[in-house]
Amino acid sequence: MSKFKKQLEAEKELAMIKGESWEDYYSDLDIPEGWKCVSYGNDALPSFISDKDNIKGYQIWINSHNPEVKKLNSLDIYGVEESFRFCVTLCYGYEKDLFQSDNFIEVIEWINNNPKSPEQIEETKEYL
Fold it and tell me: Residue 88 burial by CB count (10 A; 0-12/13-18/19+): exposed, middle or buried?
């Protein structure tokens, strides 16, 4: 691990110690009914599935609303200081973002207006 990467990890850990827990990342949001938290302790960000059926639901990754923590996460995950707060992917392990936004209402609308196609459902099954 590079010195820069170690420093980022230390800063990120310090931010968590100061009270920035994953619940804090989405404490300002009204999470839709039916979404379920599927965050793992070793994930880079907390996430939700948009449907009780993991095959039909999208994975929504949520970055912190705290600008400093968001910046550290963006550097760690994407290698850039600025990234969108919300990223929608097909499912866990799928590395391509289907939709990105800083507006949670836009995320909800996109998910509601774009149900998974039969092809996407089949692709999801390959990952889960």
Answer: buried
pLDDT of 14 above 60: no
Digit-coded pLDDT (tens) for 58-114: 999 999 988 888 888 888 888 888 899 999 999 988 888 999 999 999 999 999 999
Long-range CB contacts for residues 12-21, cutoff 8 Å, separation at least 24: 12/69, 12/72, 12/73, 12/76, 15/66, 15/68, 15/69, 15/72, 20/64, 20/66, 20/69
Within 10 angstroms of residue 46's Cβ, the number of other Cβ atoms is 20
34's tokens = 């039916």
Q: Provide the CA 76 distance to its chain's centre, in angstroms.
A: 13
C-alpha–C-alpha distance, residues 26 and 13, integer Å: 18
Sequence spans of domains, the chain: 3-127
- CA 65-120-41 angle, 5° bins: 40
Q: What's the whole-model pTM score?
A: 0.83
